[in-house]
Each structure stands twice: as C-alpha cells, then as structure tokens.
C-alpha cells in the first residue's frame, strides 16, 4: 500500500531516469538531483528505478545522516562497504580528500559496468561530502510534485475509505495520504505526527516559537498578526520555511499541510498554548479592525 501510493503518477519521472541511464551506458556521466518535500516519494522513486535496472547497472547506495554533527564523508563509508576497492581503507586512515575522491571516481570510469550511485538526504550532507562535486553541465533535475485529487480518490477506493477531505488535509503528499487512509482512528496518524515533530525539533527556539504561534492562528497566519505576537522572533520564520514546515502564502504564512499544523498544535504544552492564545487574542483586539 505504501509503495503503491508513493509511486502513483511517477511514470514520467521514471522515464526521465531511464533516459539518463542510457546516456551513462554510452559513457556520459550525469548527476541527477531528485527533489521534493519530505514524504513526496523520492526514495520510493529511486528504489523502483534501481530495481528496474539491477541486471544492467551496479547500484551503490549511501545516505547522509540527520545529525547536528554528521560524520564527515558518511555516505562514502556506506558506498565503500559495497566495493572491492581500497576506498574504505583510505577513509579509515583519514587519507587526503583528493585521494579518497579519486578512488571513488576511479570506480565509476567508463568501460566498466554502468554504476548508479545514490546518496540519500543530501540536504543533511556534511561539508566534506559536498566537496565531492561534478560539473553543472552534467546536471539533471527531477522534481516530484504532490498527488492529484484523482490519485488520492483512487487510493481511497483501494483502501475502502472515504476520499472526502483527504486531499485537502494532506496536500496530496503521498506519505500523509497513505497514513491517513491506513489509520483507523480520527485525527493525525501517529506516524505523521512523529515525522512532523521530528522535523520541528530541529528548529531553533525562536523558529519553534514562530511555528507554534502560526499553528494556533490557523491555516493562514496573517503577516501583521504573526509579527504582533512573535515580535523580534519574526525573522526566524525563514528557518521554518527552509525546513519545509511553513510556506509563504498571500499576506502571510501557512503550513504545507493541515495535518502538519494539527501535529504541531497538538504538541504545544497546555500552559504554553493558553499563553499563545491569549497573545493572539490581544493582538487581534489591538488591531485597527478590532
């Protein structure tokens, strides 16, 4: 169920990746950036692509760690364990980066079986990993968007669940859609709540304050009202945007998904929630509109 939801409406992206692999087979290396918000299905897309081509290409898989202090060159350790070369020994001996990068690129030279190197969660990459760069002229992008209402309705029928309101609260995010349809209880599914709050936990105290106030205000937090409540913390809204929790909307900010807002709202301690509600009410009463 989960993989089906993630891969709906992804045929075009798969065909694009297939065409790039054909170029690689001809000796033209490429870097592909698969982008999209959390839960949009990036990993599922790449996994399906890799499964389709395991007989014709060597798949090497690494991942960046979601740590405040990630291990330098973390994904290369994962990849080195899958290679018969001396890359792992170079990493463990803290060899100079040019030697390490040269060893990896040597494994990917034309004339060998085509290789697909996957580095997951590159937005968490450490500076050393980011130094492993390729020319921009060999760069392709695959941007994944949300599911359409028709796709959500199809999933709801398969799950024998009502589709009404599902697209609206999930924004068509495949992960959110799947978890809502799979949950037997009303409200925010625990898996969705955990995913949202894990992302929110990485915010600074100022950005979390902005996020909490926005959640209390509602689906759209008007700029003037939000500024009146959070005051000098307002610039931290950019941090919540960069983390994919808030997005700019006309006249203010909004959550990317109503489920995310509900998850944040439900996690605010009761005492803090009362204080925020009081501050929002006072700001509303003090506004010119009254």
Give a short summary of the structure.
With 290 residues, the protein is mainly α. It has 16 helices and seven strands. The chain is 52% helix and 11% strand.
Distance between the termini: 49 Å
Approximately what portion of the residues adopt beta-strand conformation? 5-15%
- Rg calc: 22 Å
Q: Which runs of at least 5 residues are low in confidence (pLDDT < 50)?
A: 1-6
> What spatial order of strands do you see in the largest sheet?
5-7-6
Largest sheet: 3 strands, antiparallel
Overall pLDDT level: 90
Silhouette: globular
In terms of quaternary structure, the protein is single chain
Pattern of helices and strands = HHEHEHHHEHEHHHHHEHHEEHH
Helix run count: 16
Tally of extended strands?
A: 7
Which class of secondary structure composition applies to the elements?
mainly alpha
Helix content: 40-55%
Describe the structure.
With 290 residues, this protein is mostly helical. It is 52% helix and 11% strand. The radius of gyration is 22 Å and the shape is globular. Mean pLDDT is 90; it is low at 1-6.
Please supply descriptive tags for the structure shown above.
single chain; 290 residues; three-stranded antiparallel beta sheet; 7 strands; 11% strand; disordered N terminus
Topology, pairings included?
Elements: H1 2-7, H2 11-25, E1 31-35, H3 42-52, E2 58-63, H4 74-80, H5 87-92, H6 97-107, E3 115-120, H7 127-130, E4 139-143, H8 149-159, H9 166-170, H10 174-182, H11 190-200, H12 205-217, E5 220-222, H13 223-230, H14 237-242, E6 246-249, E7 252-255, H15 258-267, H16 270-286
Parallel strand pairs: 1-4, 2-3
Antiparallel strand pairs: 5-7, 6-7
Helix pairs in contact: 2-3, 8-10, 11-15, 12-15, 12-16, 13-16
């Amino acid at each position: 169920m989960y993989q089906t939801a993630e891969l709906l409406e992804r045929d075009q992206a798969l065909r694009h990746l297939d065409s790039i692999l054909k170029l690689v087979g001809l000796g033209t290396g490429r870097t592909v950036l698969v982008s999209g918000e959390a839960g949009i299905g990036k990993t599922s897309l790449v996994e399906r692509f890799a499964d389709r081509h395991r007989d014709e290409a060597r798949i090497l898989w690494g991942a960046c760690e979601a740590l405040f202090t990630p291990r330098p060159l973390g994904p290369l350790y994962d990849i080195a364990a899958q290679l018969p070369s001396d890359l792992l020994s170079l990493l463990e001996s803290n060899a100079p980066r040019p030697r390490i990068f040269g060893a990896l690129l040597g494994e990917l030279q034309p004339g060998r079986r085509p290789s697909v190197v996957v580095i997951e969660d590159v937005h968490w990459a450490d500076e050393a990993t980011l130094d492993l760069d390729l020319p921009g002229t060999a760069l392709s992008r695959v941007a994944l968007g949300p599911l359409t209402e028709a796709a959500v309705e199809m999933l709801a029928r398969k799950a024998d669940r009502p589709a009404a309101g599902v697209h609206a609260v999930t924004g068509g995010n495949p992960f959110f859609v799947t978890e809502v349809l799979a949950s037997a209880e009303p409200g925010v599914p625990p898996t969705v709540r955990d995913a949202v709050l894990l992302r929110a936990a990485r915010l600074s105290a100022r950005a979390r304050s902005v996020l909490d106030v926005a959640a209390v205000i509602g689906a759209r937090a008007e700029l003037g009202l939000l500024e009146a409540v959070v005051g000098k913390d307002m610039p931290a809204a950019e941090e919540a945007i960069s983390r994919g929790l808030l997005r700019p909307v006309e006249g203010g900010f909004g959550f990317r998904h109503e489920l995310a807002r509900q998850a944040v709202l439900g996690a605010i301690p009761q005492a803090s929630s009362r204080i925020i509600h009081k501050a929002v009410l006072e700001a509303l009463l003090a506004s010119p509109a009254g």
